[in-house]
Write a structure and sequence with these properties.
Strand order of the largest sheet: 3-4-5
Helix content: 40-55%
Number of helices: 17
CATH class of the largest domain: Mainly Alpha
CATH superfamily of the largest domain: Intergrase catalytic core
Low-confidence stretches: 1-21
Number of strands: 5
Mean pLDDT: 85
Radius of gyration: 27 Å
Largest sheet: 3 strands, antiparallel
Structural class: mainly alpha
Number of domains: 3
CATH architecture of the largest domain: Orthogonal Bundle
Strand content: under 5%
Length: 424
């Protein structure tokens, strides 16, 4: 195929773009929309150099569209992804052309140039079911936004696994469908220990609203919990300090990562509590931090000088402009809040690798620092009640896992082992 342009000729192989010649000087069908597309990134605080590179990629997409005979008004999200995969990706380029192409197609829809693909009746019915389910989670269950997000995501995946693009019919669901979906997810590379809980909540809702004749949630087994099977995973005090030092020296986002880990290592915050901190949650004069804990419970904790210095350094040197009031945001534009605590797990895993420390388990969780704080408190003579107060446990049973760390205390209550003949 040969496409003529005022400034040159593009030779296009019928089925591949590996042999094409792309020039920045060629006019394309997307040129009239590049300015507004770039502006959508500028208002989100993207750097000028990044916007320029994005415009260059979209111009190459425009050349592919010209060769394929696709006008911007007819571009769909799926077409954009397919055509975007034909755009060569430069070495070291962080953005995937097909992802940027989908975003450009969405921009064309937003400004009225292209029309969204009409939803099928099956998609409309599924969206209505999930919307009602979300209302139930908010008003009747009172779950946090983070939990609601994950529960809805798994509910949608479950429906997609069972019904695909066909009409959703909850009355046709069987116990084997739920078990099969859970096994399918757990067979993947990334295992989610909470999937059974999410599916069970969805099935309970379907039964409660009359969509299913039986409560299928009863057929979903609960995740096994082996309380006391092993000591709490933790690092030594020197190991914790090594981790903190390694992230503090990162030139790109060391101040942010250091402040996040320090909150867990010194105050015992959970990952979800760290990413939920708002700028208004800190009372600098009183030296207090409002912690948005589990179950929508709020606590106020004193901020040490060390933690206060780390937070102020991050705000001064790294946070930059952001449209939200969340304390910790992404390093790259548009500087949004994190969806969940996985960012903390990734930071901690990289820090362990940098310091040469072998993770206690293959999965590195953010509770490692929380457990390390509790372990240090127990080893320095703190009582379990004091540990529970620091960790803000609502139940003493949650703190009992640290009792096995107090070796001297356990030795004092150990009963002598009976010997043969009645001697002790």
């Amino acid at each position: 195929m040969i496409v003529l342009r005022p400034f040159g000729i593009i030779f296009v192989a019928p089925t591949t773009w590996s042999t094409k010649i792309m020039s920045e000087n060629l006019e394309t069908c997307v040129d009239p929309y590049l300015a507004s597309f770039g502006e959508s990134f500028a208002v989100a605080n993207y750097k000028a150099a990044t916007i320029k590179s994005y415009r260059s990629i979209i111009r190459k997409l425009g050349q592919v569209m010209d060769a394929e005979g696709i006008e911007p008004s007819a571009l769909t999200l799926n077409q954009a992804e397919r055509l975007g995969r034909m755009v060569p990706r430069k070495h070291g380029q962080t953005v995937c052309p097909h992802n940027l192409a989908r975003r450009f197609a969405g921009h064309l829809i937003d400004i009225g140039v292209a029309q969204p693909v009409p939803l099928t009746e099956a998609r409309i019915a599924r969206a209505a079911l999930l919307a009602n389910f979300e209302t139930y989670l908010v008003k009747q269950r009172g779950l946090s936004q983070r939990t609601i997000y994950h529960t809805l995501r798994f509910a949608d995946r479950f429906l997609d696994h069972r019904f695909g693009e066909t009409m959703v019919d909850p009355g046709r669901l069987r116990p084997a469908d739920a078990i099969g979906f859970i096994e399918h997810v757990l067979a993947g590379a990334r295992r989610d220990k909470t999937i059974a809980t999410h599916v069970r909540i969805f099935l309970q809702y379907l039964f409660g609203c009359g969509a299913t004749a039986t409560n299928l949630a009863l057929s979903v087994p609960k995740t096994a919990k082996r309380w006391g099977a092993r000591l709490p995973r933790h690092l030594s005090p020197d190991g914790v300090e090594a981790v903190l030092a390694s992230v503090r020296d990162n030139q790109r986002h060391g101040a942010r990562d250091y402040a996040m880990l320090l909150l867990m290592a010194r105050l015992g915050l959970r990952a979800a509590e760290v990413i939920a901190i708002q700028l208004d949650d800190i009372d600098w004069r009183a030296g207090e931090l409002l912690v948005r804990g589990k179950g929508k419970l709020h606590d106020r904790l004193p901020i040490t000088v060390e933690v206060g210095d780390a937070l102020s350094r991050y705000l001064r040197e790294e946070r930059g402009p952001a449209t939200c009031r969340t304390m910790f945001v992404t390093h790259r534009a548009p500087h949004r809040p994190f969806k969940d605590g996985q960012i903390v797990n990734a930071i901690l895993k990289d820090a362990l690798k940098a310091t040469g420390q072998k993770p206690v388990t293959p999965y590195v969780g953010s509770h490692l620092l929380r457990h390390s704080l509790a372990t240090r408190l127990v080893n320095t003579g703190a009582s379990l009640d004091e540990v529970g107060d620091v960790l803000r446990h609502r139940s003493r049973s949650s703190t009992m896992i640290y009792a096995r760390l107090d070796i001297d205390g356990l030795r004092s209550i150990a009963q002598p082992w009976p010997a043969a003949g009645g001697a002790q």
